[in-house]
Write a structure and sequence with these properties.
homodimer, Mth169, Chain: A, three-stranded antiparallel sheet, elongated
Chain lengths: ~90, ~90
Amino acid sequence: MQFQARIDVKHLPGIADPQGATVQRSLPALGYTNVSEVHIGKLIRLVLDAPDEVAARVQVVEMCERLLANPVIEAYEIEIIELAPNT
Amino acid sequence: MQFQARIDVKHLPGIADPQGATVQRSLPALGYTNVSEVHIGKLIRLVLDAPDEVAARVQVVEMCERLLANPVIEAYEIEIIELAPNT
């Protein structure tokens, strides 16, 4: 069966987010003075073959720990969606 | 009122996604041969003050067009969540 995984990778609390900080500093110059707490993370989408949803999730967690995220500075949330057989 | 915006910025179809392609090429070397269609985009979170949800969404669309996304190569999806008054 095929599953789509959506992995939301964000900085752990307290870890600097330079990309978010840069955007936040730029917004007032464009006239947006009502924006705060800008955080920029990654959203990874992928498709994998697995016997069931549990196996898919276990593999995605393993891939996050090994490659997709940096567990020292990043947290990740995984969402697994079963794809219809004809897609 | 305060609103949280979550903005999912992804490449338009047909636009090269070098970060996703690099991850996809790396996975077989780690033993993951069942993964395809790896796409890596940005997930932006921010908080803004606005009179209502419609005004918040209008401002976020404008910020996406001007700064947060590159409409020539990227698509974006916006989700607006009202924050409880005490947060």
